[in-house]
Specification:
250 residues; alpha+beta; seven-stranded antiparallel beta sheet; 6 helices; globular
Length: 250
C-alpha cells in the first residue's frame, strides 16, 4: 500500500509531560504542564521548553530567567493534566492539586516535591519560533528523591513509574526492550549470560547441572573401582590363608 502524504503536523510522539514551575515578583510559585520539552546538550547539560507567549508561566520565566522541570509519574497524571488546562493567573495550582513546593538549591523557583527528579534551570537563550518561544536553559542542579534510587545509587525508572504524553493522552511506560548497545553486543557474551541463566534455572528447579553430573559420575566410577580392588584383595588374602592352612599337618 502506498504511503499517504499529509501537511506538516506535530506527530513526534511519545514525548515527556513535565511540570514547569517558576515564581512571580513576590516569590509566589506557579506550575504548568509542558509537552514541548527535551534535552538539547550533554556538556554543559542543557534542556529546552517551548511555551506560548500567552501563558502565565511564559511571563514568569521571561522576568526571572529561571524555572524548574519536574518529571511526572502515574500518581501525578491528574495533576499534570490539571496544571496544563488551568492558568496560574486564576488559581493556585499547587494548592488545588495538593502539591508541595520543593526548595531549590541554585534557583528561586521551587520544584514539585512529589516528583522523583527536579531539574533546576537557568535560561541562556530565548528563541522566538512562531506560536511558541523556546527557552534554552542550562541545568544548574539536579534534585533527586532517594526513594527512587536502586542499590547502586542509580535512578530506577521502573520504580518511579514515569508517564509520557502521546497525541492527547497520558501513558505509562511499558516493558524495557533492550539496553543501550545491546544490538552490537558480542554473541559470545550473550551466550555466556544465557548459559548462566539456564544453569541458575536448572538449580532452582532441582535439576543438577552438567558439571555437577560429571562430578557425581566421577565419584561413582571411582567408588566402583575402589570396591573392585577391595574385593580382589580379599579374594587374594583368602586364597593365601587356605594355602597356609594346608601347609601344616594335624
Amino acid at each position: 500500500m502506498a504511503r499517504e502524504y499529509w501537511k506538516p503536523a506535530n506527530l513526534l510522539y511519545p514525548i515527556p509531560a513535565v511540570l514547569v514551575s517558576a515564581v512571580d515578583a513576590e516569590g509566589r510559585p506557579n506550575v504548568m504542564t509542558a509537552a514541548w520539552a527535551g534535552t538539547v546538550c550533554s556538556d554543559p547539560v542543557m534542556v529546552s521548553v517551548s511555551i506560548r507567549k500567552s501563558r502565565y508561566t511564559h511571563e514568569l520565566i521571561s522576568r526571572s530567567g529561571e524555572f524548574v522541570i519536574s518529571l511526572t509519574t502515574e500518581r501525578l497524571a491528574r495533576a499534570a493534566d490539571y496544571c496544563g488546562v488551568k492558568s496560574g493567573r486564576d488559581v493556585d495550582k499547587f494548592a488545588a492539586m495538593h502539591l508541595h513546593p520543593s526548595p531549590s538549591r541554585k534557583v528561586a523557583a521551587p520544584g514539585v516535591a512529589e516528583s522523583p527528579v527536579c531539574l533546576e534551570c537557568r535560561v541562556t537563550q530565548v528563541l522566538e519560533l512562531g506560536s511558541h518561544d523556546m527557552f534554552v536553559a542550562e541545568v544548574v542542579s539536579t534534585d533527586v528523591d532517594p526513594q527512587y534510587l536502586d542499590e547502586r545509587g542509580r535512578f530506577d525508572l521502573d520504580r518511579a513509574h514515569l508517564i509520557t504524553y502521546s497525541h492527547g493522552g497520558y501513558f505509562a511506560l511499558g516493558d524495557c526492550l533492550g539496553r543501550f548497545g545491546y544490538s552490537v553486543r558480542k554473541p559470545k557474551a550473550q551466550d555466556k549470560k544465557a548459559k548462566a541463566r539456564k544453569t541458575a534455572a536448572d538449580q532452582d528447579q532441582g535439576r543438577p547441572s552438567h558439571k555437577s553430573h560429571r562430578k557425581s559420575s566421577g565419584r561413582k566410577a571411582k567408588g566402583a573401582k575402589s570396591n573392585k580392588s577391595n574385593g580382589a584383595a580379599k579374594k587374594k588374602h583368602s586364597s593365601k590363608s587356605r594355602k597356609r592352612r594346608r601347609t601344616y599337618p594335624h
